[in-house]
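Intended use. Records like the one below are meant for learning the mapping from a protein sequence to its folded structure. Do not use them to infer anything beyond what is encoded.
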Amino acid sequence: MKRVHGLYLVAVFLTCGCCAQSEKHGATAETKSPHEPTQATNNPTPPRQVTANEWVGVYSSPSEIGAFSGTVLVIDKWMNDDLIYRMKFYSDVVIDGSIEQDELSGTCLIEGDRIYIPQASGYYRDGKPDLSASVDRYTRVAVNGNVTLMRDDAYRGFNTQGKLYDYGVLIKIAEKADVLLDLSDVEHKSIKVLYNDKTKPWKDPFVNGPNER
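Structure written out for the chain above:
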């Protein structure tokens, strides 16, 4: 019981205890405007401080992976420019005994052009809840004029190979965060808006690896 209680405290801390922060960096990305996200390159770009207002909006996973997985992330401002989030996620992979959650919510931590989204999950084992917590880190990157959030696995592939791993990419579809927004009814753009050659056929990156742009 002590283990479950400890996991519960960790999950609550990560989901509800992170506050949006700002850290000033000496180097800034070379962009045309201080309000533009990091531009797409195949080399790492020095981070710059993204303002709280720039994070606000609605982000969703690419439409091509919708039959297998989907994510909608809404980021909004709270008190003192802290950031809060709502997230809806689904997957065709289901673990027996998982504790179902319609939406996740909490506060976020920001650092330069990166945002940290805490999550808690759990399942029942032998009739008892087993809880765990994790933090996903996303980097804000502009590709073909589209603002994206790339999870660490997707960002590494993008920086080192110039490829896109759809399952780790969220594309910004709205600049405002509506508290009444139904996260089940949100636009999912095609990953091809990030391609250099939009006529290229799409392949499932989970099967074939990240796609060339």
